[in-house]
């Protein structure tokens, strides 16, 4: 599992985007998290789940859970256990902060 932090939209706790992410916590909705590598270049992590809210730091806690069904299967409405069987879990060693080279 990969844990990352995502900043609030602005500084208003009640901004519609921030309220929507809090709602995603309640409903356990899978999302896509785009991590900026450089201007105009992003690394996408999916599926991710918002698992916590830290209003003091203006951030959300995001968890990428490799054990859940992949995003395409979730969008197709397949039961998660059946969807997981269609994919192979692959563990690899990965150099940190090397996203630019992989892109």
Quick summary:
With 103 residues, the chain is an alpha+beta fold.
Biggest pleated sheet = 4 strands, antiparallel
**What number of structural domains do the residues give?**
1
The helix fraction, in percent, is 25-40%
Strand content: 25-35%
SSE order: EHEEEHHH
Task: Tell me the Rg in angstroms.
Answer: 15 Å
**Which secondary-structure class do the elements indicate?**
alpha+beta
State mean pLDDT (0 to 100 scale). 76
Strand order of the largest sheet: 1-4-3-2
Terminal CA distance reads: 21 Å
Low-confidence stretches: 67-71
Question: Looking at the structure, what is the overall shape?
Answer: globular
Number of distinct helices: 4
Count the strands?
Answer: 4
General description of the model:
There is one protein chain. The chain has one domain. Helix content is 26%, strand content 33%. It contains four helices and four strands; from the N terminus they run E-H-E-E-E-H-H-H. The chain is globular and about 40 Å long. Residues 67-71 have low confidence and may be disordered.
């Amino acid at each position: 599992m990969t844990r990352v932090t995502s900043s609030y939209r602005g500084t208003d706790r009640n901004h519609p985007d921030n309220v929507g992410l809090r709602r995603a916590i309640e409903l356990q909705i899978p999302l896509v998290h785009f991590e900026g590598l450089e201007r105009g270049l992003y690394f996408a992590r999916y599926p991710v789940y918002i698992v916590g809210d830290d209003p003091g730091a203006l951030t959300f806690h995001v968890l990428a859970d490799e054990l859940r069904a992949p995003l395409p299967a979730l969008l197709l409405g397949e039961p998660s256990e059946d969807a997981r069987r269609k994919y192979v879990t692959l563990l690899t060693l990965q150099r940190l902060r090397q996203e630019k080279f992989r892109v």
